[in-house]
């Protein structure tokens, strides 16, 4: 069916059946385990393989890169699809390790909603705060899952206060834990007014058996002491009307978050969570294009590339571009226009992914994520169009926070050294700069997290057979510059170096906080950018 003959109502009907979301959390909050269990409950997998089982070499579905399997962490963003009750979910699984890359930020740009996972014992932690700032910047709705309620931790009301105090967002309970720590037996569904008591099954590899009843008939069936039953009833009287009175507009703009309690490891509370998640999570939203207005979901086909991943198939030196469909209908075999170059490209073999498992995709609608073969000129942030030319400028450069000087140990592999780093730069794994006042074949790498240097070193050796010497470059901080004029003003500034990335974007490197303050006085803080659009 040609794009022009697809009825508008068909597109909007498909949009209403989709939910595209990203999971954000601090390390060890249970994000990967929760991801596995959502796939389990969504029917995408039959048995969950959690982090705990990796000792038996059963790696989680969402972690496929060799370095992830070795360390039991997520360092790239996976794209996972599953369907439940007629709703098609696109789950963008972001890195959970504290040292993450711009990959995380870009993934959040491609999502319509964020699922924030919090450890009941630790509350909101540093990584969660950093990722939440990205959601705040975009006004992204956030739904919270408080995990590990089967372990000792904060009282539920204390968790709610922690979320509000740390993030400045109002927390509204959607369910409530029944029992605490080792006594955790289930949850009370505040929305549906039902008590769910669970039984553990097969170490959490399969769905938990639930006994559903009203609160007053179900409470005596628990093993809670009388005083704890009374405490539970008092807490529910205090909060039970808050969800029904929640301002949906404040939720949809990221100012209020519904909170669910549960245990991903034991599958407690996941049935309730998924039941309401598709009702709370927004349908795919329209994006603003360069002319300053939102392009309609039912317009002509358009999409943008938010992630590049090279060498997903180790047997073939390939590059995959992940595209978010922004409008219209995407069809296998269609010709699209690459906006940046004007080239026409035939989409011969688009794919959907379950981590590293691929399936040919016949069609996709707004909100869907499509894996495309990169013909060699796709870049992060590129727009792909159908019959109408437009451009999305929505993916910013993130300011690198750590810097290293690198050089190839083997001088005869300089070509592979630069080619490999150029590829990783295009993927957004690392920023590559010329060394200010440098000599020889040395390059400067910049990342958001320290772990990315290990990822670069690992991939350069595994994929390009290049071994590198790495030395720290002691810069305090950096700021992107809006153009050459500001760069020339700062070229001779105190303890400041000016260089450019491989795309020619100028950046100022400051050796101290004092140097940064001096530069702010000289050119103005507004011209020293933490985020820069391409």
Strand order of the largest sheet: 2-3-1-4-5-11-6
Distance between the termini: 35 Å
Question: Got a strand count?
Answer: 30
Q: Name the structural class.
A: alpha+beta
Number of helices: 14
Q: What sort of overall outline do the alpha carbons produce when their principal axes are compared?
A: globular
Helical content band: 25-40%
Largest sheet: 7 strands, mixed
What is the gyration radius calculated from CA atoms? Answer: 24 Å
What can you see in these coordinates?
This protein is α+β, with helices and mostly antiparallel strands. The protein contains 14 helices and 30 strands. A seven-stranded mixed β-sheet has the order 2-3-1-4-5-11-6, with helices on both faces. The chain has a six-stranded antiparallel β-sheet with strand order 16-15-21-12-13-20. Helix 5 links the parallel strand 4 (113-119) and strand 5. Helix 11 (414-427) crosses helix 12. The longest helix is centred in the middle third of the chain and has 14 residues, at 226-239. It is globular and about 75 Å long.
Top keywords for this entry?
alpha+beta, six-stranded antiparallel sheet, 14 helices, 534 residues, seven-stranded mixed sheet, single chain, 28% strand, 30 strands
Write a short abstract of this structure.
This protein has 14 helices and 30 strands. Helix 4 packs parallel to helix 5 (126-138) and helix 11 (414-427) packs across helix 12 (451-464). The chain has 534 residues and is an alpha+beta fold.
């Amino acid at each position: 069916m040609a794009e022009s003959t697809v009825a508008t109502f068909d597109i909007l009907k498909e949009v209403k059946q989709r939910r595209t979301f990203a999971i954000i959390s601090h390390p060890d909050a249970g994000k990967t385990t929760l991801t596995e269990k959502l796939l389990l409950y969504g029917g995408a997998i039959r048995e969950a393989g959690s982090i705990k089982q990796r000792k038996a070499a059963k790696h989680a579905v969402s972690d496929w890169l060799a370095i992830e399997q070795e360390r039991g962490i997520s360092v790239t963003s996976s794209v996972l699809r599953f369907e439940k009750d007629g709703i098609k979910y696109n789950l963008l699984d972001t890195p959970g390790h504290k040292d993450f890359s711009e990959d995380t930020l870009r993934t959040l740009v491609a999502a319509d909603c964020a699922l924030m996972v919090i450890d009941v014992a630790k509350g909101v932690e540093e990584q969660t705060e950093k990722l939440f700032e990205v959601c705040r910047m975009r006004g992204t709705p956030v739904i919270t899952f408080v995990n590990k309620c089967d372990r000792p931790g904060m009282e539920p009301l204390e968790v709610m206060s922690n979320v509000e105090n740390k993030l400045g967002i109002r927390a509204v309970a959607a369910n409530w834990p029944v029992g605490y720590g080792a006594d955790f037996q289930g949850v009370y569904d505040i929305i549906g007014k039902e008590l769910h008591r669970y039984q553990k099954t097969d170490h959490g590899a399969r769905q938990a058996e639930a006994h559903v009843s009203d609160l007053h008939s179900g409470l005596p069936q628990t093993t809670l002491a009388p005083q704890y039953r009374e405490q539970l009833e008092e807490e529910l009287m205090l909060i039970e009307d808050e969800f029904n009175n929640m301002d949906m507009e404040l939720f949809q703009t990221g100012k209020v978050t519904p909170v669910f309690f549960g245990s991903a490891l034991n599958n407690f509370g996941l049935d309730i969570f998924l039941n309401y998640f598709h009702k709370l999570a927004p349908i795919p939203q329209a994006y603003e294009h360069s002319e300053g207005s939102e392009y309609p979901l039912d317009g002509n086909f358009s999409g943008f590339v938010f992630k590049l991943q090279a060498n997903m198939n180790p047997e073939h030196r390939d590059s995959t571009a992940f595209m978010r469909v922004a409008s219209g209908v995407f069809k296998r075999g269609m010709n699209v226009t690459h906006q940046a170059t004007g080239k026409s490209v035939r989409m011969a073999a688009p794919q959907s992914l379950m981590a590293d498992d691929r399936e040919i995709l016949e069609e996709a609608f707004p909100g869907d994520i499509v894996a495309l073969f990169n013909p060699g000129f796709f870049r992060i942030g590129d727009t792909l169009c159908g019959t109408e030319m437009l451009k999305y400028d929505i993916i910013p450069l993130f300011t690198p926070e750590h810097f290293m000087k690198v050089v190839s140990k083997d001088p005869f592999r300089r070509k592979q050294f630069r080619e490999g780093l150029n590829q990783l730069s295009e993927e957004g794994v690392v920023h590559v700069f010329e060394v200010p006042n440098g000599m020889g074949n040395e390059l400067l790498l910049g990342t958001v997290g320290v772990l990315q240097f290990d990822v670069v070193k690992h991939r350069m050796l595994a994929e390009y057979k290049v071994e590198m010497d790495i030395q720290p470059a002691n810069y305090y901080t950096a700021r992107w510059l809006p153009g050459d004029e500001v760069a020339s003003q700062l070229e001779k500034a105190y303890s400041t170096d000016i260089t450019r990335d491989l795309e020619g974007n100028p950046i100022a490197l400051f050796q101290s906080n004092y140097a940064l303050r001096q530069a702010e006085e000289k050119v103005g803080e507004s011209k020293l950018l933490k985020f820069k659009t391409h």
